[in-house]
């Protein structure tokens, strides 16, 4: 499955209008042969889902997800990139949060980022599926509680924390799909859930895995 990729230019801000929805990708490309379908087609859901490759600090959206550590005081990887781009005030607000346990999430303002909020979550160190799934559920609970209309997830735990990329993508997509199925009214209020991928290998993995959990609406 080849999904339309919106490759950002350095320094450019990307808005949701620039990012195609999964349903649009399905219409644009020949019907793929999907193996191992894991959920029923639901066009209501696939029109709310996107994959986008790029730097999450350049995304104009209601909330971006940070893959933080339990201190919430910054680090390397995406955490470092978000703190650098948001500015010092982010660290000041994070200090007041007094950390965050693995599998949970806390939100802050986004300061100099183009997004409105940052949802910091702490993924497991190594492969603990329950903890990783809990990150996605905790983020979605904040999205719901704060009435946010759009959110961009990063590939939590798959960098420095060493989670296998395929297993992590499967857990991420399974959890988000289940949450939507179990919270239909809340899920309908969300305009877009973006899976922000950064590495080519995650592009390939999400291109393969997204249609399993969010198959093309109707005749598949
Ligand atoms: N935009 C989008 N995705 C990114 C970006 C970016 N600017 N930079 C990296 N990624 P990682 P973890 C991707 O290591 O494994 C920190 O030190 C990256 O390619 O950032 O959860 C924290 O403080 C990968 O797909 O987070 C913790 O100590 C994904 O983001 C620890 O690392 C997550 O990789 C957390 O490790």
The computed structural class is: alpha/beta
Give the low-pLDDT segments: none
Overall shape: it is: globular
Order of helices and strands: EHHEEEHHEEHEHHEH
Largest sheet, described in full?
6 strands, mixed
| Annotated CATH topology of one domain | Leucine Aminopeptidase, subunit E, domain 1
Task: Give the CATH architecture of one domain.
Answer: 3-Layer(aba) Sandwich
How many DSSP helices? 8
Relative helix content: 25-40%
Query: What CATH first level of one domain would be assigned?
Result: Alpha Beta
Q: What do these coordinates show?
A:
One of its GO terms (biological process) is purine nucleoside metabolic process. GO terms for molecular function: ADP-ribosylglutamate hydrolase activity. The protein is α/β, with parallel strands linked by helices and 220 residues long. The protein has a domain at 54-204: Leucine Aminopeptidase, subunit E, domain 1 (3-Layer(aba) Sandwich), CATH 3.40.220. Helix content is 39%, strand content 16%. The protein is built from 8 helices and 8 strands. It has helices at residues 22-28, 43-46, 77-86, 88-97, 129-145, 165-182, 184-189, 200-213, and strands at 14-15, 49-53, 59-60, 63-68, 105-109, 117-122, 150-153, 192-197. The strands form 2 sheets. The chain has a 6-stranded mixed β-sheet, sandwiched between helices. Strands 1-3 form a two-stranded parallel ribbon. A hairpin with a 7-residue loop joins strand 5 (105-109) and strand 6. Helix 5 crosses helix 6 (165-182) and helix 6 packs parallel to helix 8. The chain starts with 13 loop residues before the first strand and ends in a 7-residue tail after the last helix. The model has no long low-confidence stretch (mean pLDDT 93). Bound molecules: ligand AR6. Ligand AR6 binds at residues 55-57, 67-69, 75-79, 81, 123, 154-161, 196, 198-199, 202.
